[in-house]
Design a protein that fits this description.
Layout (H helix, E strand, L loop, with lengths): L3 E5 L4 H12 L3 E6 L2 H15 L3 E5 L8 H12 L4 E4 L7 H4 L2 H29 L3 E5 L12 H21 L5 E7 L19 H14 L3 E4 L3 H10 L2 H4 L5
Length: about 240
Amino acid sequence: MKKWVLILGAASAIAQGASSAFAKRGYNLYLAGRDNDELGRRASDLAIRHNVKVKYGSFDAEKTDGHEAFLENVLAETDSLSGIVLSVGYMGDQIKAQNYPDAEKVMKINFTGPVSILSRCANYLEDRGDGFIVGICSVAGDRGRQSNYVYGASKGGLSLYLQGLRNRLYPQGVHVMTVKPGFVDTAMTFGMPGLFLVASPEYVGEKIASGVDKKANTLYVPWFWQFIMLIIRSIPEMLFKRLKL
């Protein structure tokens, strides 16, 4: 029997890359997001290309009151889930986010909402005693920088949450992988100044699926970002606070 993977935020470019990579491996997919028309088109394409079952439904990370019912509906339609990929994200605007109402939206979409749905998914997989959870974070969460520290704080918080979840679920046979992409060619980064060595969503998606195959814990994509961020994290705070980053 083929296994099912739930893709949260499935209309995003990275999620589409991951969906294709998992479908190539024979997984059935449940695509969840806010744009049902786009999800429907994507579901039809994946089902035809890869000869797998693909279902889809509405999911909004901000509407946490509906997360319990959402997961129950997914389980009713799929019978069981073997994996969850969280690809929900909202960068927002740093200047606007320096006023709390805008910062709150960034936090809700990138941290509070993901914790709400992943807590429920984690409990389900823990009861099953197997499966995997993948959380898409960002290298921006490795150190606070003036140019995007609100977004970075939300992704850094999610990264720490996933680290604790990994520690909790490992003895139960559930694998948790944290993904930290660098610059990726997506709608979120389109037009941003200063981008370099931009990866394609297809490349990132394949690395995510292969990371699950290998049971990687933390995955920097592309790989060299692990060393870039190591250098950035190593800069003493007395110097770092004077930099324009």
